[in-house]
Design goal:
Blueprint lengths: L6 H11 L3 H6 L7 E5 L6 H7 L4 E4 L2 E7 L9 H4 L3 E3 L6 H6 L6 E4 L6 H10 L4 E5 L3 H13 L5 E4 L3 H7 L4 E7 L12 H6 L4 H19 E11 L8 H10 L3 E4 L8 E2 L8 E3 L9 E8 L17 H9 L27 H12 L22 H12 L7 E5 L2 E5 L11 E3 L2 E7 L2 E4 L1 H5 L8 E5 L4 H7 L4 E2 L6 E2 L7 E7 L2 E9 L2 E4 L9
Parallel strand pairs: 5-6, 5-8, 6-7, 8-9, 19-22
Antiparallel strand pairs: 1-3, 1-4, 2-3, 7-16, 9-13, 10-13, 11-12, 12-13, 14-15, 15-17, 17-18, 19-21, 20-24, 22-23, 23-24
Bound molecules: S-adenosylmethionine.
S-adenosylmethionine (SAM) binds next to helix 6 and helix 10.
Family: Belongs to the class I-like SAM-binding methyltransferase superfamily. RsmB/NOP family.
Pfam families: Methyltr_RsmB-F (PF01189), Methyltr_RsmF_N (PF17125), Methyltranf_PUA (PF13636), RsmF_methylt_CI (PF17126)
Keywords: Cytoplasm, Methyltransferase, RNA-binding, S-adenosyl-L-methionine, Transferase
Length: 526
């Protein structure tokens, strides 16, 4: 690496590591390791391993994770665009492995952008249960939402909130919480030299303050008997053992359990040997810290656990009664539920304007129940009804659940709409599409989360063919009707689920041998 390590950092590391320091320091002249994690929502890990265009080597602590060679360019393969894997630093795959997420759990990822660990949690949920994925910084939630949609996640809600407000809206609610905390990033110096430049001697103490606040919120949102994983990518004991020891002292209802991993993982420093430290000179990965905390079954003072928040609970929080960190509280700038910008069509400004106009009459940042607001989309057409009609002709099974309509835009949510009242919601669920002028226009995330056999009209492109890249670049394709896979009775004309080697990537619209490209501009292969 070119950047000079801060002398104060190296002095601290020498003190921390003693005679291991030389081996540690030597890693800075070595290349960082790269990896991908298979998105099992789309493909089993064994299948991807068999069809992978580049060599894969298993990562010992993550059954769906693989090291990739330096020469591999996984972001430049059609499989990436079909959401078959997520490019992730190998050590960063460890926290979710320790979270023990099971299908059906309610999981909260409090510091989630850009979504590496959220997409990993979603894969473990396997479409059952709930993922609430949050980040405080609005700009970062865009990448978060996009990655969740790329991976075809159906049961995620994306928020842009302070953890304190989430805890106030969802007291003692979640079975699993991940706090992948903002930190001084010392473990990433080799991979990201910006981290080196941003570091100063106050960094560890500054971040420890933030971590304390986030952990307090997590304590309130975790259900009795629930599990919390705390992770950082830094070495400083203040932000690691210090943050967790302080938390345990304040919260006797929590205990640390061993963070069991793989060969080469080291225990935390006293007083927290249950934690794990991942050192770059002992494993093939960057520096990480991991702690697993369990909340007593009967220890939550306030717990009337696991009921959905009553309607209005969030609104109370929005009016300023929420606990904890108030940064990011409603300030009138926040957007209500919006369709992904990249899913708004060119020339479809009316659609975007409609959504914004709809939000003006609402509490800032609120999500409104389908069809409940006066400023709701013009026209009496019921978006859910239009979707049902579209689905009857297009899909082999019609997804069901809580429909949330905002303006012309329809989502399927894993939560009842009132549960999100007052919370800045980036996505209230799976974006299905837009109901406009009596028609339903399917959204891109609807396509990415479908399996080929769930669409009555599909087309599979060979990942190695120039056609696959043409489609991903947004080009029109010539496709004779016999190439379309049609369910019994389906006509070739209409929306086609375009797949890469059988894995959904987006929509096309077929007519008379021409496949019009519906792959959104912001997602295209460049
Ligand atoms: C280590 S990164 C998260 C990486 C992410 N978990 C992943 O796997 O892709 C920490 C994140 O915390 C967010 N953040 C910072 N302060 C926060 C706070 N008070 N509450 C929630 N998120 C916060 C940052 O915007 C950043 O995206």
């Amino acid at each position: 690496m070119a950047a000079q390590l801060p002398p104060l950092f190296t002095a601290r590391m020498q003190e921390l590591l003693g005679e291991s320091y030389e081996a540690f320091a030597a890693t800075y002249s070595q290349k960082p390791h790269s990896g991908i994690r298979v998105n099992t929502l789309k493909v089993p890990a064994e299948t991807l391993a068999a069809i992978s265009p580049f060599r894969l080597e298993p990562i010992p602590w993550c059954g769906t994770g693989f090291y990739t060679e330096e020469s591999a360019r996984p972001g430049k393969h059609p499989y990436y665009h079909a959401g078959l894997y997520y490019i992730q630093e190998p050590s960063a795959m460890a926290p979710v492995e320790l979270l023990d997420v099971q299908p059906g759990h309610r999981a909260l990822d409090l510091c989630a952008a850009p979504g590496g660990k959220s997409t990993q949690i979603a894969a473990k949920l396997a479409g059952e249960g709930l993922l609430v994925s949050n980040d405080l910084h609005p700009d970062r939630t865009k990448a978060l939402a996009k990655n969740i949609e790329l991976c075809g996640v159906r049961n995620a809600v994306v928020l842009n909130e302070s953890p304190g407000r989430i805890a106030a809206a969802f007291p003692a609610f979640f079975d699993r919480i991940l706090v992948d905390a903002p930190c001084s990033g010392e473990g990433m110096f080799r991979k990201d030299e910006d981290m080196v430049r941003q570091w100063n001697e106050e960094s560890p103490d500054r971040y420890a303050g933030m971590q304390r606040e986030i952990l307090e919120a997590a304590a309130g949102a975790l259900a009795p008997g629930g599990r919390l994983v705390y992770s950082t990518c830094t070495f400083s004991p203040e932000e690691n053992e210090g943050s967790i020891a302080g938390f345990l002292a304040r919260h006797p209802e929590f205990r640390a359990v061993p963070a069991l991993g793989a060969e080469g993982w080291m225990p935390g420093f006293p007083p927290l040997p249950e934690a794990a430290r991942l050192w770059p000179h002992l494993i093939k990965g960057e520096g990480h810290f991991l702690a697993v905390l369990v909340k007593d079954r009967d220890g939550a003072a306030s717990a009337a656990p696991s009921e959905l928040p009553a309607a209005g609970a969030g609104a109370a929080c929005g009016s300023g009664t929420g606990a904890g960190n108030d940064r990011g509280a409603d300030d009138g700038r926040s957007l209500a539920v919006r369709p992904p910008r990249e899913n708004r069509r060119s020339g479809g400004g009316g659609k975007g304007r409609g959504a914004e106009a709809g939000s003006r009459g609402a509490q800032p940042g609120s999500v409104r129940r389908a069809g409940s607001g006066a400023g709701e989309a013009a026209g009496a057409a019921d978006a859910a009804g239009l979707f049902a009609a579209f689905a009857a002709g297009q899909l082999t099974a019609v997804p069901s659940g809580e429909f949330i309509r905002f303006g012309d835009h329809l989502y399927l949510s894993p939560l009842p709409p009132e549960a999100l009242n007052g919370l800045k919601t980036v996505r209230p669920g799976w974006y299905l599409g837009e109901a406009r002028k009596g028609r339903f226009i399917p959204g891109h995330p609807l396509a990415t989360a479908l399996k080929a056999e769930e669409s009555r009209r599909s087309l599979s492109l060979d990942s190695g063919s120039p056609e696959a890249v043409s489609y991903l670049k947004g080009e029109t394709l010539t496709v004779p009707p016999e190439r379309l896979a049609l369910a019994a009775g389906a006509e070739p004309k209409g929306y086609v689920l375009v797949c890469i080697d059988g894995y959904s990537a987006g929509w096309g619209k077929w007519q008379d041998g021409v496949l019009k490209n519906e792959y959104p501009a912001g997602w295209r292969w460049t």
